[in-house]
Amino acid sequence: MDKTILPYIISGISVGGQYALIAIGYTMVYGILRLINFAHGDVFMVSGLLMVYLAAALPLTVAIPLVIILTVLLGFTIERVAYRPLRTAPRMSVMISAIGVSYLLQNLALYITGGLNKNYPQIPWISDRVTVLGMETSRVTIITPFLTIILVVLLVLLINHTKIGMAMRAVSLNFETSQLMGIRINSVISATFIIGTFLAAVGSMLFFTNYPGVVPTSGAMPGLKAFVAAVFGGIGSIPGAVIGAFIIGICESLIKGLDTILIVNGTITEQIGLATFSDAFTFVLLIIILVFKPTGLFGEKTTDKV
Amino acid sequence: MKAVKTPEESRLISWISFFAVLIFLGLVLLLDQLIKPTSSVYMLMTVLQKGSVYALAAVSMNLLNGYTGLFSLGHAGFMLIGAYTYAIFTIPSTSRDTVYQYFDAVVRFSFPETFSNAMGPVGTALGVLVAVILAGLLAAVFAYLIGLPVLRLKSDYLAIATLGFAEIIRAICQWQKLGPITNGSNLLKSFARTSKFKVAVGGLKLTLSTFVPVLIATVSIIIIVKLINSTYGRAFKAIRDDEIAAEAMGINLARHKMISFTVSSFFAGVAGAMMAMVLSIAQASNFKSAMTYEILLMVVLGGIGSTSGSVIGSFLFVAASEWWLRGLDSGSFLGIEAPNIFRNGFRLVVFSIIIMIVVLFFRQGIMGEREISDLIILRRRKRKAGKEAAK
Amino acid sequence: MRKDRPCILRVEDVTMQFGGVVAVNNFSMEEYEGEIVAIIGPNGAGKTTAFNVITGVYAPTNGRVSFNGDCVIENYPHGKMKKGYLGENAGKYTKVLEPTPDRLTALGMARTFQNIRLWKSMTVFDNVLIAKHLKRTSNLFSATFGANKAEEKQQREEADALIETVGLAGVRNELATSLPYGKQRRLEIARALATEPKLLLLDEPAAGMNPQETVELTKFIGEIRDAFHVTILLIEHHMDLVMDISERIYVLDFGSMIASGTPAEIQANEKVIDAYLGVTDDA
Amino acid sequence: MKKILAVALVLCLVLALAPMAFADNPVVKIGVFEPQSGDNGAGGKQEILGMQYANMLTPTVEIDGTTYDVELVYADNASANDKAPTAAQSLISSGVSLVLGSYGSGVSIAAGDTFAAAEVPAIGVTCTNPQVTSECDVYFRICFLDPFQGTVLANFAKSELNATKAYCLAKQGDDYSGGLCNYFIEAFGKDNCVYEQFPEGTSDFSTYITNAQNQGCDVFFSPVSTEAAAQIIAKANTQAIGMPILAGDTWDSNVILNAAKGTDVKICVTTFYQEGADPEFDKGIKEWIKSDATALANNGGNDELAAVTVMGYDAYYVALEALKAAGSVDPADVLEVIPSVEYTGVTGNIAFDDIGDALRDSAFVKSCNTETGVWDFVTVATVK
């Protein structure tokens, strides 16, 4: 492959893997509750902050599992406190509640950090520098996609072969009927949030090891992008979300480098600032998908009843 | 409860509102003369200025989210268009080159200047007005174009698509290649702003820094209220309550949703222009989705589907965050000294907790779907009934 | 049959398929001005689907609907459909007119719903008044700035008159959803009448009513036909009501029409008795 | 319920307005207009440190025969241009005689109008963009300007680092980094520069470094906030950037030192002060920082001095000079005398020209010692 483009692709795959881990949480929650959990990106950020504070006080071997446990607990609590009481309320109310939680988490983080950038602790080994295909990068960049795929395979196995997985699939197909069939909806939803936040916690470790600065708004953009990835892949579909995330990660990285790529190719002679659109591109992709194929790449068709 | 008014009561309410608005405007004009920027209660004026910007933004969002039932999160984008349009067309020619310090500005005229050359001081005011209206119109045009593909989407997909468009608008405004128009991602300033709104009427110098934004917001909100009470407003509510029934009763969904979306965006654009003139700067990076969320929370605080609620909600929001709760950030609040707890950011934490409580336990907000007029009428009826019972 | 009068509604060979399920199969019917015609059939026979095709909610997989002499719905074979419409059922519409429900209503077709769909946050009066929106001549600006006062006043008076006629004047200012079931049905009919239709389509108007209310409703339907000069097409389960007021009846079973004729003919038809009357008369 | 709420709100209002308890001496208020959160929060806090230290050493000032207690009044502009006017207004409303700050040029430009409308003078400490003073009659500053700094850096890159092609990275919409890059490019030669901007909230700097490498640049100029700086340095290390990183005065901070320690990235910055120029002052302030837990935390956890802290220290004394010269605590009087104030501080001579800018013609160039984690003095640069 072209030596110019390779670094962008590798960096894109790595970011994509991190988005994928967040996107799964979105897609699972949306599949079951039909709720865009706006707070999911902020849970991801809080997980990063927890690591910052815990790693300062405890050895990493204790801090890492503790961060995961606390993040999962946070996700579980948010569902209990902010979404469960609104189960029968209109969808708009639940979405507003999600926006409210996101606002609260960001402000809380602002208060605790004093609004300052917190440096993410270096996790040994994975943050070391390695040389791949003649290119210098950190080990986490290389590990991320593999770890993501392993986790996704485990998750798919869980969903297809365990009782709770079956219950999840049933609930996402039809909420009311599953309830009538004796599925305990609340525990299924809790399980969904637990799995989603667990993956977000892992994603946050990889992400912040790669980009070691945590601020209160760190979660907002990755969160939105992960949601777009979930929509792109077809909401409710886990492989779809993962593929969507990788595509978005790679495109984003390529767009940031597009000026340079074109200059090196000789297509253009001076910078035209296309990198400005690296975030906006994600949304262009979203709108194209929503307008032309609202069910996403792998989404199932739904029929509306009058 | 909403009160169904008799014709007599409606007339009464129109008179009351007419005088209330008149008195309010007069009071603002008076305060504008009395309270100088160095005064310790000038925060009141800041709250009035910013509050009126957010009130208009919230009311226009409520028109869409509360009355038409379209959950859109693109407000910040339309406000951005409004702010930029207003700013670009009111920068005086002498300041243009310093504002566009890295670019060759393309737009080389300013409405207030052009008009004042032709008509004197009245022209300046007219120029500002034209720029504000142009700001709204441009936002409406963008809304129309965006509405074509996205308005067919359902609830949360609509929300996320409009959010996306707002981000795209922001990126476009920040693009270096558009620098000659938008000044790239840099600050726009030196345009006509409230701190410069002063007139001399026959030797009497009047300050209009707060009066102008309050006036624009009041007029705009009155127009929105009139729209809501018109046959179109009723059609919007029908769409909100039951889209299928509305369509079956001959209401063209696509057309009416588009009307609501463009009108809402028009006033969002006006609010954006006001935001620029109040802050005296305009910069794309300020119009993030967080701004939309804040406006949404104001609407929720006031009660979705209540215009007076949105106005109250936004003034409360602004006053609490800019003024009353400031002590929470700076060490002492209500006489309690606790610098370790009351430090930077605590105000926002308290604030978000209050909002979560409203969202979870007082879902109706302050006003529910009622208006102030409903409260007045109900009160009046109660009093009348009481009097009759006493007889 | 009143063939001497103009044909208001003509349905030709309508088929509606959802995936593999054929909800309506090759259904044809016609109705002439001033008639009251009923479509009956057991649960799941495809009555409401047929209704939804006629009112433009669904685009038929095949077939044609003409209203008042104009062809309003016609489909390409094999479900090749036009995608110009941006509403609820984007991509489902056919070539002529893009017959969305609101356009058909504007042409003079109004309906009620099986599971009452009133605007729930609004009063009885507002429910009727909003249906008058269709008849406005004011545009956005004249409506907002009060330049349409005369029209607004007239529409309000018309709405009040309509409420009076259907006997809801006493509850004019009540919330629509606070009314008892029977009155909600009446209100839905009044709302449909407010659009000044030529053809009124009633989807199970007597569903959930007791015998007393049903008798009143039967009378009411006859009255409105005469008072408003509308043609009525209704779907009904209540055999009493159907037999009393309809002039002709079409019977659907599993999507196909198995009989048509006057009430007397239908009552005597063995196929109908087998398929419907003898089996699932739950009314 | 609603009534209680209403009463509570009114109570809040009354208490918020209630006057503070009076001290023995009359009080003169100096406004501190600095970011304490957001991108520039760390830098703003370091700048405040200098003022606080100076205030501790000299808590009173004699104005027109009366001894006043000096009170620092803080307002956080949150590094955001849209928050700046309100923060400025809150200072004005609290009755300050003059204002110091801010770290970061954008917020100063944004707030200029508000200060001008109230005719309250402001003295910029380290805001280097020319527009801060050129567009505002009440704004002064004690630091050098970007055209100067940009030229110094460009000359340094050419002559000392032998660079022929420069990669410039600024933050979108940031007047400080954007302005400085612009002047750097002007001095270095437009054709030899690659200029890119990253959007707010960017955490992935690896692509920008790749861009610089791919386009064959030999110096990486990124005068961005310290927050972004830490991440750029980390990425530069893992991607073996292979060219020196050059930056302006914001990077003279221990955040950079901490990030660069133990890496093999070469970093050079221009700044206002070199530690050791006034050993007595250095010793005093370091002791104070170490003794005060909050100060230590605000300085990033160690006692490495940032130039902005020293500038903050000098700015406080310039403010006192102005108050003394005015003989009044009225902002209008202070405004009148500032242009003629002169003061010799730790960072050198401070006097204003007719635009309100400091008359300064030299900058220190320092490089980061990645082994020990301190700044090494390189040279004093001037522009002829």
Shape of chain B: globular
Count of the separate structural domains of chain B: 1
Instruction: List SSEs of chain C in N-to-C order.
Output: EEEHEEHEHHHHEHEHEEHH
- Uncertain parts of chain C: 77-96
Largest interface: A-B, 49 and 46 residues
Helix content of chain C: 25-40%
Query: Nearest-angstrom radius of gyration of chain C?
Result: 19 Å
Through-space gap between termini of chain C: 27 Å
Report the strand count of chain C.
Answer: 10
Integer count of domains of chain C? 2
CATH architecture of the largest domain in chain C: 3-Layer(aba) Sandwich
Coarse structural class of chain B: mainly alpha
Give the DSSP E fraction of chain C (strand runs of 2 or more residues).
15-25%
CATH topology of the largest domain in chain C: Rossmann fold
| Structure annotation, total helices of chain B | 16
Strand order of the largest sheet of chain B: 1-4
- CATH architecture of chain B, by name, is Orthogonal Bundle
The level of helicity of chain B is: 55-70%
What does this molecule look like?
The complex is a heterotetramer of chains A (306), B (391), C (283) and D (384). Chain B is globular and about 75 Å long. Chain B has helices at 7-34, 42-67, 75-88, 93-99, 111-119, 121-150, 155-174, 179-182, 211-229, 231-241, 243-248, 253-279, 289-302, 307-322, 346-361, 372-390; strands at residues 188-189, 198-201, 204-207, 281-282, 332-333, 336-337. Chain B is mainly α and 391 residues long. Chain B starts with 6 loop residues before the first helix and ends with a helix. Chain B has one domain (7-383): Orthogonal Bundle (ABC transporter involved in vitamin B12 uptake, BtuC), CATH 1.10.3470. Chain C is of the alpha/beta class. Chain D has 384 residues and is an alpha/beta fold. Chain D has two domains: 24-144 and 282-352, Rossmann fold (3-Layer(aba) Sandwich), CATH 3.40.50; 146-271 and 363-382, 3-Layer(aba) Sandwich (Rossmann fold), CATH 3.40.50. In chain D, the strands form three sheets. Chain D has a seven-stranded mixed β-sheet with strand order 8-7-9-10-11-14-15, with helices on both faces. In chain D, strands 2-3-1-4-5-6 form a six-stranded mixed β-sheet. A two-stranded antiparallel sheet of chain D has the order 12-13. In chain D, helix 3 packs across helix 4 (105-118). Chain D starts with a helix and ends with a strand. In chain D, 63% of the residues are buried.
